[in-house]
Amino acid sequence: MQSYDDALIKSFLSGKHIAIVGLSDNPDKVSYQVGKYLKNNGYKLYPIYPKGDEILGFKVYRNIAELPYKVDVLNIFRKSEAILDIVKEAIDSQKTSRIWVQLGLHNQEAKKLCAEHNIPYIEDICIKIEHQRLGV
Fold first, then answer.
1. Predicted local confidence at residue 3, as pLDDT
2. Domain extents for the chain?
3. Burial 49-66 (b: 16+ CB within 10 A, else e)
4. Is domain 6-134 given the CATH code 3.40.1050.10 in the classification?
5. Can you say whether the dihedral through the CA atoms of 61, 65, 66, 72 is positive or negative?
6. What φ, ψ does residue 101 adopt, rounded to 5°?
7. Using one digit for the tens of pLDDT, what is the confidence trace for 38-88?
8. Helix 108-116 / helix 80-93 crossing angle, nearest 10 deg
């Protein structure tokens, strides 16, 4: 698990528009539970998922490029090996200011690419746990 400065984490949590790559429509999945928590705490979600039209009451987008505008945070719930391609798509589409990779996931190449493009990047910590911990 990574360690990040609380001020950095708070800067991510201050934005209220979060796209979640891999937000499942299955209530038993962690991504759904995190999404529901974020929704209940005032965040507007943009699910990025290959199927369905709506998750947690929000319109589903098939990919990052489909997002209607730039979001504050792109939260990734996909396997570590998929992260680099997701980050490349996010950079190419210019649809996010920050990238957050969920607990247990990491990708050094993606982290390096974000640094090269001056995109703040957090990995291997949970956005829900950090929100609860910091009381943001």
1. 80
2. 6-134
3. beeeeebbebebbeebee
4. no
5. positive
6. -105, 125
7. 999 999 999 999 888 999 999 999 999 999 999 999 999 999 999 999 999
8. 20
